[in-house]
Amino acid sequence: MFTVYKRFDHQLQIVASNEPIPGSWIRMVNPTPQEIDAVSAATGVPEDFLRAALDAEERSRIEIEDNCLLVLTNFPILRGPDLYDTLPLGIILTTNQVITVSLEETEILPGNVVGPGAPAYYNTGKRTRFLFQILYKTAKVYLRFIHQINRQTDVIERHLRDSMNNAEVFQLFDMEKGLTYFTVALRSNGQVLERLLRLRKNSALQHLLPQYEEDEDILEDSIIENRQALEMVQMYSDILSGMMDAFTSVISNNLNQVMKLLASITILISIPTLISSFWGMNVGVPLLQQPLGFWFVLVLSASLTSIAGFILWKKRMF
Q: Pick from 58, 27, 67: which is nearest to 192 by CA?
């Protein structure tokens, strides 16, 4: 589907006619081939630009063709409690519109909130600033997800200290996989941001990247936030990798402790079992005719079990 937005009275609002009017923003989410053809015919954007972000494995890049600028970036997405992934987001700038294309809905884009409650700083008429604001928001969401992963790691770490199963290790593995996706995406996004910084100085592209006040600051802030996110994700990825190795050993050691305790209990139980087996045979045994024979055997079993238990305790088997 696709929806057309435009800023009216300092607020982002939906265009009722859904026509790509000048100064508007066309938001496409998992569009159909018919919708791609319609938008391409109305705006003059090449269809391969509109389809670029529909490939989940597409890498970040910049392309320029037929007075259209394609900025392909990757944004983070949460698949589950511990499952993180990235998807491509295509941002296309023409001389009149901004077009975004993605496979799924994302909080990166401001179209979820329109009308009086919409953020006032999004201006569809200022295409360059709109692009940089999306890139800045992308870097901020990466940082938020990275902090969220760090908090989840702390919780799992506390559980792992006494754990004897692999559930927490698999959680760490899922988060480490997500951080790997983040690392690749942030590195390629950084290259896109650096190239945008160079393209803004190209006078031949001023009709696609017009200059506005504060645009340079937003782009530089985006580069700084992206670098910070990349450094943090690399650091947390190293921490997670080391933590997985350490806690795999911890789980194995916890299991060994339990097995050692069970072995000690088995030894202690076997002593009275062995003695009672001898006195329970259908043959003549000592103390057979003694009235206190049962109590003697019971005391003997308890004494030997206590001695064995003391020896095992001294050897730290408990």
A: 58
The boundaries of the domain holding residue 106 are 2-250
CATH of the domain at 112: 3.30.460.20
Average the pLDDT over 277-304 and give the result.
79
CA dihedral 29, 35, 36, 38 (to 10 degrees): -140
In the chain, which residue ranges form alpha helices assigned H by DSSP?
A: 33-43, 47-52, 127-160, 167-199, 215-279, 293-314
Q: Same structural domain for residues 120 and 261?
A: no
pLDDT for 165-213, tens place per residue? 667 777 888 888 888 999 999 999 999 998 888 887 777 777 777 777 7
Q: CB of 190 within 8 A of CB of 230?
A: yes
Do 132 and 239 belong together in one domain? yes
Q: What distance in Å separates the CA atoms of residue 314 and residue 271, rounded to the nearest whole number? A: 18
pTM score, whole prediction: 0.77
Instruction: Encode pLDDT of 55-87 as tens digits.
Output: 888 889 998 887 889 999 999 998 888 888 999
